[in-house]
Amino acid sequence: MALLSANPATAAKRARTEPAAYRSNPAAMAAANAMAARLHMRPASVRGVIGKAQRLPAVVNAVTPGQASAARDWALYRSRVMEPLRIQAGVQFWQRNADTLARAERETGVSANVIVGILGVETIYGKHMGGYRTIDALSTLAFDFPAVHPKAAQRAAYFLQELEEFLRLCKTQGLDPLKVRGSYAGALGMAQFMPSSWRQYAVDFDGDGRIDLFGSRADAIGSVANYLAAFHWKPGMPTHYAVQLDPQTLDLPALLQNDIVPSMSPLAMRERGAELDEAGQRHPGLLALIELPNGSAPTQYVAGTDNFYTVTRYNWSSFYAMSVIELGHEVQTAWQRDSAAVPAQAKP
Ligand SMILES: [Ca+2]
After folding, report:
1. How many other CB atoms are found less than 10 A from the CB of residue 244?
2. Residue 278 designated active-site
3. Chain-wide mean pLDDT for the chain?
């Protein structure tokens, strides 16, 4: 009944004028004090920064489960990634950074086309690095993670850790924590690294003495390569093979039981009704059957290798990995075609 008697106009006005900054949140201020000791910073200074963070309702909404989700549709997802503008930006990126990409491939063994695929899917080569103030996004996720989420406590703890890593990063890189912007989840720069990944895996690849994932394409390229190498990218190994399912012998539950973790030999896959292409049959390691549902259309399948799995360590999704791989190949093909066309045009 109390709810019914509340004046909606007053409530709306309060919502507009109420300072949503975390300075008035005791849990946030206690966390700031605890972080200060570990960061070797003054408690008042960390409280000052987190205290200026704003709670972002859009960020809460983005991580709130619910809203009947549409059927997963790989063809639709793929079409959104493989836009002509993104491919064109990729070709330009490859032209401008060919030497750096080649050096990254040489030093880490990670294929340049996968690096190009990741930077294209993440930010269209730095064009869309995210407009949320990172201090706001991470504070909101750390202190106001929606309780309805089944793993709310775990997720909040993760983002609290990332908030601390973000402040450490700002301190070591000389960034203003109130100015840095990124994704709603706190991912940063062209490569969209979380702060902890930046600290662990980002590298200075242009040799200027600092790691700049916002402004240095070389640092972004080197960091993506280093990340994939750290997650056991195997030089020269394909990411996946074509596969055909045989309805006579198909045992789909057995094929899918370990999800995207490579755990079957080519022979074991065949015995369960998944027939690999020629190269796949000769694959020396283990494989996973990757399921790509297409809404109401037939599901697509490929056989993923250890390298497919490595790409999913960047973002834990088969759709993500497959789109990165396909974009990388598409850009590489277009770039090679363009490069081959240049001498021909130069002829009299
Ligand atoms: Ca650098």
Report:
1. 10
2. no
3. 92
